[in-house]
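Lecture notes, unit on protein representations.

Consider one protein chain, 413 amino acids long.
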Amino acid sequence: MNRKLYWAEIIFAVIGFLFYSGATIGGLRFVLPLGPVNLLLRYGLLVGSFILLLLRWRGTLFTLQKSLLIWLLIGLMFASLIWSINPQETFTQLRADLLPMMLFSLYFASRFSLDEQLEVVSMALGAGLLMSIFCAVVVPSVGVHPAGSAFAGAWKGVYIEKNGFGAISVLTANVLFLKAIFAKKHYFRAWFPFGLAMLAVLRSTSKTSLALSFVTLLIIFSIYHFKWQGKRTILISDILILIVGGVITYAISQFDNVFGSLSGRTDVWSFALHRLGEDYFWFGFGKGAFFNTPAIMESFRFEYQYMVNHAHNGYLETLLDIGFVGVIIFLICFVLIYSKSFQLAYKADRPSELFPITLLNFLLLQNLSESYLTYRANIVWVLFVSTCLSVNKYTFIKSKIAASRRSDYNTST
């Protein structure tokens, strides 16, 4: 019975990640009414996570208290309802997006070990990859952008459009590469899925995704190759690749954007920063309010002759949502968890110990050109929250075990 329950929870978690990656929304919209399915999955995950957290309340409380800073950040998002310029939209996003993600992230971090988390995420991303390839090859009307469209011929798989598909394919390639380089046997079974993920990146025709895949895979390989050879060596190589890779990814994204011009994203950025001014600089406009306030969007359309629905930069999106105070809390949280993840990666002897820093590097670079932090419901935010909680829990347990061993050793001598 316990084994059946365990696998039921694995399936529940996989469905959760498929939903938050956009695979279920993009794929099912052609065969089922999207509204009811979306509601069922969204609130099914919320209720399911809440019940499972209650059933293991001790583990929930233990995990909950291991990363108070992330809860401060999430608390600020909920508090933004107080000063939001569009309270109705902010309330909707808090209820429909942030709350379900928060509970699911806490459940995932408290229920599964890092080893299990890597397996669950790779299963979910792998399933999305296979469904996407099937749709692109067998049902191109679903999986490929049609002739005459802006992205004609580009694969989008079960996702809404090719840029989202490219980003998820990069994350999939990162996770599968991580597992492949640690493989001791069955090399074809380890490397073939990674090859499919890279094919998906190429067929998305997203130059940003291609550059991002190169940079993030190089970082993983660098950390794996240089581990145990000195923290300074790994740290310097990691930082250099991040800086150079960030510049390259940013530059390429300017040529590979949905507006087809160099100024596409920078139009949005300059407009948003100008609007922040002094009044909204410290605490922002409220969660999800800026791009859903008609007066602001009409002003943008009047000035630039087109419309947008997000900032095309995760850090700017966060600044618009919860202001400079929120961004500072996020950066402190990120730096602290990156430091712990780096220490974990330095001594890694299995792929799960490189998993957190792999996710953080992807998040850091991907959000230079797209909004994958606080924008709506998305897999990157779920993974960031669960990584913060999991790494803190993992390092705490390891330190307790190490202290116990030292105590036993001292007693015996």
